[in-house]
Design a protein that fits this description.
It contains 21 helices and two strands. The chain is mostly helical. The protein folds into three domains: 494 residues, Cytochrome C Oxidase, Chain A; 67 residues, no CATH class; 39 residues, no CATH class. The radius of gyration is 25 Å and the shape is globular. The structure holds protoporphyrin IX containing FE (HEM) and copper (II) ion. The site of copper (II) ion (CU) has 5 residues, from helix 9.
Amino acid sequence: MVLSVPSAILYVIRFLFPPGVRRPTEIGAEVLMGFGLLSVVWWLARYKRWGWLWREWLTTVDHKKIAVLYLVAAFLMMFRGGVDALMMRLNLALPQLHVITAEEYNEVFTTHGTIMIFFMAMPLIFALFNAVIPLMIGARDVAFPRLNAVSFWLFAAGVDLFNLAFIVGGSPNAGWTAYPPLTELQFNSGVGINYYLIALLIAGIGTTLAAINFLVTVLWMRAPGMTLMRMPLFAWAALNTSALILFAFPPLTVGLLLTLLDRLARTAFFTLTRGGMPMMYVNLFWLFGHPEVYILVLPAFGIFSEVVATFSRKTLFGYTSMVASLTAIMLLSYGTWVHHFFTMGAGPAVNVFFGLSTMLIAIPTGVKIFNWLFTMWGGKIRTTVPMLYLFAFIPTFVIGGATGVQLATVPADYQFHNSYYLVAHFHNVLIGGTVYGLLAGVYYWWPKMFGYALDERQGRIAFWLFTVGFWVTFLPQYLLGLMGMTRRMWTYPAWTGWSALNLWSTVGAFMMGAGFLVIVYNILWSRRHAPREAADDPWDGRTLEWSLPSPAPEYNFARIPTVAGRDAWWAAKERGDVGGLGRLELGEVEALDLPKNTALPFTLGTAFFVMGFGLVFSFTAVTLLGLLGVMASTVALWFDDDQWKRLDPDDIRRVEAASGRLM
Ligand code: HEM
Ligand SMILES: [Cu+2]
């Protein structure tokens, strides 16, 4: 074939806009995204910020900056996942509304679920781990700063690839669980599933590396004197979460990889008609999937434990039982995965075992709830925004837990399974637990990250929109579930009698959407107008991060503090000895070695993206090009000995003096 210019253009147009797949809504969204991208480029060019972007962000290995990168990604994905949710709720607002087609509905619940779990909640967790954990345990950085950047850029490659599906080639449509046969080539020949598999595989490598990093950081990088049992609860949460990720992600990786082989290499691991076992995939997926829900909620438990102690001005009640219950939940969560498919016929003995193991988790969870309540008991409570989220979290999570126990009751689950009762249950725990916890953490640590607090009044408005909106959305869904409405249903006829409840649910969803907009406004407003003073320790905090200036200097601690007990910063303030904690005499300042910026994690991520894109479309040349880039970047990282830069004592002295920290 002779490749003329017009035919090449035609090819590109056909590729971007395959006939019969493009719809006006999608093209509209793409135009909007194009404008968004162009305006970012325009801004960078207009204010000559390319160098700044490269030096400060794309090549950074500073955990505090990587935290900001994760935060930005998480908020963007919260927006996209939220728009997906609103499209679904709009379509279900009235019977037979047909705003979107059945096929589009499949795509939208798939991208919504996948994005919210993997690309919104996970990066928000790593944003807070990065922003807080090293400061909290008295470390200069994470254990492996370069690996930290690699983790982020692999995650970014996954996010970019996943979102590219919307623009080039078509979105995945088999649910966030991607069960066969829905993912089999025979029934699903587009590239959407390839995108899903490859994006999650790449991001998953990043997440696993990040887990290793935080595991080692918490175990090895603690300040002298900070024994494990003196660690703040959030650090315990990071430790347990990382341990969960380390053992939960491998089964997911295997499941995704074998599905990919079934599609690209025509193997038949999960293809029933050719002797494969779809149930094997389902087991692999949930062997990951159930621990995943605890990966999502343990950080929230850690955050609320910090928040409740600070704003009750009391030490956390039942510290040891908190640590024990976190660890118990971590271990138990590996033994419950079959509760996601009781109806698949494993038999009563197996089902009862997994039903009981699930219910067992209610015990350590209950212990934690009581400990938070007892911490507040008799405390001097300040109802700041993070505390409001705690107040709302407790009843919401208890109800989510109670409906979880109902779903774990095997005979009852035959009724509830795949109904809106389930949809309401998991949003109850995912929003009431994970999202509330993470938002509380964002409001709590924002001053530490950026040097100013988010406006409280706007924060409250967002909180109320979110919380009222939440119940208006999901309470009707429990009822709809009991009335027989099944999950993933794209529309329904009027005679079902589901219309009123569905309309309420949609109204609530839009209230939550408004809450999100208020949070964005809150951030933009506070960035401009919030006072910059008194941000070092605005909440009268208890843990080490509040002993530092906000934002913390690049090296965090000029001198690593020595810790003598729990709540070390609070204890120092009580003793009237804040100077004793990590501050320096003028003559004491020594040069420090800090990790040096590097472009290699970014190039590695980019190469993974190229390779992934090539694999999605089976473009061999592109795949090989990407693979070459991956290998080159890895080898370069491996042999790069120039990893440290030296910070002069004079520079450190200047920074410390500017924040009044030289004695
Ligand atoms: C504004 C808040 C939210 C609304 C209104 C909302 C709404 C919805 C709707 C309408 C569905 C599809 C139900 C169906 O047809 O089966 C859904 C599914 C789902 N949502 Fe949400 N959601 C919200 C937030 C979240 C968050 C924060 C998460 C996770 C952290 C999440 C995770 C999921 C998952 C995993 C699914 C299942 C997708 C699947 O069936 O494959 N959602 N949500
Ligand atoms: Cu589960």
